[in-house]
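[job 4417] fold queue: 2 targets
>>> target A
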Amino acid sequence: MKLKLRNYQETNVTDIRGQLMAGMDKILYVLPTGGGKTVVFSYITEQAAKKGNRVCILVHRSELVDQSSDELKKLGVDHGIISAGKSMDLTKSVQVASVQTLVRRLNKVPADFFQLIIVDEAHHAVAGSWDKTTKHFSKAKILGVTATPLRLDGRPLGSHFQAMVIGPDCSWLTLKKFLSPARIFAPPRKVNTKQMKSRAGDWAMEDAEKEMMHGDFMGDAVTHYGRHIAPHSAIAFCCTIAHAQAVAQAFRENGVRAKCLAGKLDKKKRKETIKKLGTGEIQVLTSCQIISEGTDVPSVTGAILLRPTKSLSLYLQQVGRCLRVADGKDHAIIMDHVGNSLLHGLPTDERKWSLEGKKKRTVKTAPLKVCQSCYAVNAINAKVCSTCGEPFIVEKKEYKRIKGDLVERVFRSNDAVEYLNDEGEWEKDWLIENKQVLRYDEDFKNKDDIYTIRRKWGNRTLGNENLFDFNKKDRLVDIPFFRLRPSLKMEMSEARTFEELKELAKQRGYKVGWAYHVWNQRKQKNVRGYFR
């Protein structure tokens, strides 16, 4: 069978070849889940084998071994399989290998045996077994493929890859109908992450399990499946095996054909179970870390998110399970019961991938909002709900011009201040920098001063800016509610009595309990000279 690539896949193959010709021996290919990564690297494998090269496709799960092997069979590529319980046949020029098996048999395979190694789900490539295996075949060219080129621990993939070829993103693939459009629903109950500890950069799953085992979450999952997905099939992503079993039981008790796919199932039963999901014999398949990657069941319409995660990679892998197109499938449904979409954004959001890894500080995604009528997740600028058409009511904020005689404070150089910006929000952690004394005059009299500010982050200066130049009269129209005030820290230090703290709380819109808290903290410190 001759494989016909899509236009963008042909372009990506050309780009990969171009990088190889430019001397790049380790290339990372990025394409969203459902975009056809397996097809692309199977085509490259076929072409490389025709030229007499020995190729190894390296995967990390038995399902992926079978998936790659099936694709090669379609192309008529003769190949061997290196997997647990199977003997190696190195006479085949193409091998599909489980990394867990191959790493234990490296002493049986010469270091120069393969000319090309294709690493599936290559975001794992810096981990132990992967790293040891690729280093053993140090003379081979490496092609990594992944939908999500980042790791939760932030370790850069640039340590193992020299260049990156990026295919079209999820938004483009959806627009061109290569992926199904997704509707995302976020039911109103919030996950209390304050009760969860962190481990290895993500939530500790035993803590997450305790939170998600609440009857409300179980009931919401069943109710919203019946409302938005049924009778179509869905995959529920759970925290632990016990959680997955409980969710499956909750569905069965409500007449839904559900099955838990646990790691203890043997390979044959796991394969049969996934097949039944594709035929509709099973409506809901619950899982814990089994089918987040590589499971290809195009008919699956829904993804039910019941595992909170800080990992963007895991989130995109999970929602990607339902985005593949299939006959009779108009769109995919993502039931987000844990707020992952609000944390990580929509699947179609533009994301900039890099080989440099991620910084520890989290990058904020585009804000979203939830329709209060149907709980569908929408872009923050949506005027009406994209699902039910209900208009979003915008609460108008009204600001009054503040009279000049209300304020008497004089600001001096290096005073910490807060100011009300154009959007009516208080900006904090800014320092006034000016040689002259600046008087706080909110009635816009004597506007000859320029407020110059410097924002600092720790000991690092981010830069200077002119905040407002009042010599430009047109600025007064833009800033009808301009207001400057001391920082909270400064005002707290000036409030010497409990009554003054209560008055400060009232001015800033805090509850009186805040004043009690601050006052009690002061008494506990009991530092000499703290009070005057």
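>>> target B
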Amino acid sequence: MLQTSLFRQPEAELKPPPSAGDPEGLRDYQRHRVDQALTLLGTFRSCLLTLHTGAGKTRTAGSIAKHWPGRVLWLAHRDFLLHDARKAISALTNEYIDLEKASWHCGDSRIIVASVQTLKGDRLTRKPRDMFSLIITDEAHHGTAASYRAIYDHFESAKLLHITATPKRADGTGLWNISESHCDPFGIESGLEWGSCVPIVPVSEFIDKIDLSKIKTQAGDLALGELEEQIVESAASIAQLTAKHMTNRQCITFTPGVASAHAVAATLREMGYGAAAIDADTEDRQRIAILRDFREKSLQYIVNCAILTEGFDAPTASGVCIARPTKSEALYTQMAGRGLRPEGWIGDLKTAQERQAAIAASGKPNCLLLDISGRAGRHSLCSATDLLGGKRIREAVEAVKEKIAKGQGDGKSLDELLDEEEKSIKQQEEESRKKIAQAARAAEVKSRQSTFDPLVKLGFDERNHGDEPNDPGLPASKEDVEWLKKNALPFKNVTRGMVAKFRSQAAKWRRDGLASWKMRSVLSRAKLDVEMPFSEAGAVIGYMKERGDWQPKPETVERIRKIARESGREVR
């Protein structure tokens, strides 16, 4: 049974006063995105604003609506999203927020909240095309649908602001189709750093009876009807595993269908726990009562199918059970996100360190995320690691997935598990890099020796060179190779660093008036002294070419050099 004492409230003296740093009480990341969105909408027609579940999308977008110089249309697709938006925006703007839904027709209020299902056909086309100058779409991952596009097309001069926590769609349709620009995303990784999310403790349980391998894929995800059949059969096992891991946590459980939701809730009640199921057919009065009981902690478990994925706010929930396997990262993120919101007062603390410490000391230090899995077969299913895997080393993500599946998480948070695995991988990579670097240095020394040693007899001094190029280890360029060939120097396996030294040596000999590389090569083959002045070397080589005498006698060479010194002329 739920022991409410474990869900303690923070001590009164620990609660800070509401933040007075922002005139509208916005957090710094929210204010940044308000300013950014207003700037982007000054240039582009459309803009995407992505904030993780619980980061304050409605408040952030509501502030944009407040400052917008014209009439604003707020679109949503569910009743509770409409009513929550009206309440929140009215509190933020101190304006009357009108409604366009079913039999309710809006008046001339500046801000209108409207149902997408209502605003269509004649009801849409009768409205002036310039009625609104800004349209804000809540849960905008639905915004690529024809019903939304018809509204965007009708109000053709209106700017478009799309807000969502999950910009990825299961069917692969990108939101770039409706958004020309985007604000800096603020995902779960950012939320953990800022302190707007609690750490995730991942747990995975395998139920042998669940075999997803034969289930078809529809619209990018598992076929819902076939999936529901399997989950219903495992409802008792799901309830038992949920109770085993959640103990005194309040938990939101997601199932694929109505029957499975009610079956899991019924089993939990039979086990003596406070549990209720809600679905699309649950009467409004009953749904409101169930959610109120959950928020007030007199109910430990809520089981639902596709109802609480959007717009539901329950900071007391410290556990989420995903008994609805999915291939959709967006859907998985929506489900998991329902348990990540910290206690509300923590957001008023000034620094990330203070917020993270407050979360650790609060009644909700983390969220236990329970994945119910079975044989996946060909399907690639989402798991807890996908929530933070975007900026992580792929190998680390895969290793942590395997650990969690084998029950080797040891109660650590997902962040801790990924940090440990990344550290291990980086250590291995560093060791590997050191070995490769050692081997590369040895190979370089060997290559340099094989290239440089024969040139030493030509008078080459490796220490005598100018600045090394920025990329000395790269192969010699085409221009460098041509220069090497022209100067009778080795050109295979030569690096740019070596060429720089050869060129520098050539320049020094030129300044000192000594024989060039090519001259020295000829002199060396003739077994003559290579350290000749340029004019004398030219005279000797000219004599050898003219006479065809490629190994002249020492006295002949000395005579030619003497004549060249005295006359400054080549000797024929």
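[job 4417] complete. Note on B: The chain has three domains: 19-186, 195-387, 452-567.
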